Amino acid sequence: MEARLTNTDAAGQSAHPDLRGWLQWLAATDRLAVARKGISLIDELAAVAKKLENERAVLFPAPGKHSIPVVANLFANRGWIADSLGVPSVELLARFQHAVRHPLPWAEVTAAPAQEVVQQKIDLLAQLPIPKHNEHDSGPYITAALLIARNPKSGIQNVSIHRCQVSGPDRIGVLLLPRHTLHYFRMAEEAGVALEIALVIGVHPACILASQAIAALDQDEMEIAGALLGQPVEMVKCRTNAVRVPAHAEIVIEGRILPKVREPEGPFGEFPQYYGPRANREVIQVDTITHRKNPIFHTIVGGGTEHLLLGGIPREATLLDHLQRSFPSVRDVRLTRGGTCRYHLAVKIEKASQGEPKNIIMGAFGGHYDIKQVVVVDMDVDIDNESEIEWAIATRFQADRDLVIVSGAQGSKLDPSSDNGISAKMGIDATKPLATEPMEFKRIHVKGIENVDLAQVLEGDPKAAFARIVAG
Ligand code: MN
Q1: 174 CA to middle of ligand 1, Å?
Q2: For helices 92-101 and 305-326, what crossing angle results, to 10°?
Q3: What is the distance in A from the centroid of ligand 1 to the CA of 160?
Q4: CATH (domain of 380)
């Protein structure tokens, strides 16, 4: 990509980074497909998006009977994510690490495009084009909303994404895994009050990525977004509560997580490519919806490429940070696609000591409980290519010598092979020994392949050339 994304409007005026800017850039670089009007919000929209998940973003101008367009597939591969942050792919993790270490506080504003229209009478499915995604999902889900909540004591905000089931005209069932939103909600519930929240739909990719950082409790992820963007995110106070939301969002749903209320939520198609089960979960009471005059609704297909990448890349940056603190030989990490961008980690090292890969394996297990398998490889292995990782295992690994197994550790509850989240860990040292005979592990190479110019060496019309050859 030669040109860089610049945040300017049609008149060339500097504009605040938002979803529209990213969509304009995708359209300008031929990465945005536009669907015909009338695609059904039930199954069909997700099917079209999923079909294109590794190729194009898709805009659905008028899905179902709605006039509000839906967009899906903001990211088709990790190169798009780097592009959205204005960095080359090789600098993506370093950029994210830097933003987490150097957050940029947001700026409060009083007027916001996100509040151009205020709806006080709420009927979610009538007002918003909310799709049903995977076949056995319990119904329509809001999947791409930033859930912003305030620490009830300090007012510090947390930003994260949760699956949100439409349970009634103004009711949303929400899954709160044991992280920061749940921590704030428990504080509110113990005090006998609701937790004020906002669901923010349609923001710049940097805000979505920042929400997935494995940050400390009470580190406001919107400050990481500001650092990623290189400018403070403009935030505005909600109309019915004290939560501050990105002023340039498309749609904001204001509400409260109710104390002492639990209602059925699920099943829902999740990142491991299985359904998360139905159970009684927390409930959001919706108070108000605000939006732009002509809003765009963003949806993420559960378990699709966008979902996997969005969760994976911020985790990679965090795990790289964690490993490099103890092991300077660690150069890069990937959460592989086959490992659902969560469970299987490849670590590339510049090996300096025999035995060190096993220490790195044990360090990686401690980086996040989701990590189930770690493969350590040398610098000559392309960790973006899962076949290369397997090749390293095939030719540099011996199971009786290079394998680490840990039983009965904490794992992912969404891994159906685990015993309700109790899981084994496997580490594979697929590095070559430090001292070897010169030719023993020398990778084969055809001399000059880097310099071959096919236009120079091949005939332009092979059919005619072949006919001349066989004619003698
Ligand atoms: Mn947090």
Answers
A1: 17
A2: 70
A3: 7
A4: 3.40.1670.10
